[in-house]
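#lab-general

N.A. 3:47 PM
ok so I finally got the sequence cleaned up, no stray characters, all 158 residues accounted for. can someone with queue access submit it? mine expired

B.Y. 3:52 PM
send it over

N.A. 3:53 PM
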Amino acid sequence: MRRVIRIAGGAGLIALMMSGATIGRSSAAEEAANLIAYRQSVFRAMEDHMAAIDSIVEGKVELWHHVGDHAAAISGMSRGMLELFPHWSGPSKGPTMALPAIWKRWQDYEKAAIQFNQEAAALVTSVGMIDRRLVKQQFDRVNASCNGCHDAFLKQEP
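B.Y. 4:20 PM
back already:
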């Protein structure tokens, strides 16, 4: 009797595995929602780091020794910009400010993301030069790159 139960149990497990069912995995909808939420967190974090640097370079606060940390965080997050928008995570998958243009014009988005990453990396380098004027100029380039991407690929709030 035990042998029959084990065989039947094994056959059931094999049938379950062959059906494509997953145990402990989220559905495609949940996976997309989780990625969209993560993506939004990353962009909020970058926005906060950009605002902090802006406060410093505009002279609102005298904490120049913080610029490098904020720049490094932005640069680090910018390296993952392409991973944040896989083909299965478009606007139809959940509430997002991302426009369909990201997926429809992927090469343009890819180019903009790479440009942003390069400008962010150059900001980190400029901080090491200890020249506040150069840091501000490079920060303005990062900001322009960021805004250029937003203009093309982000829903504008009314």
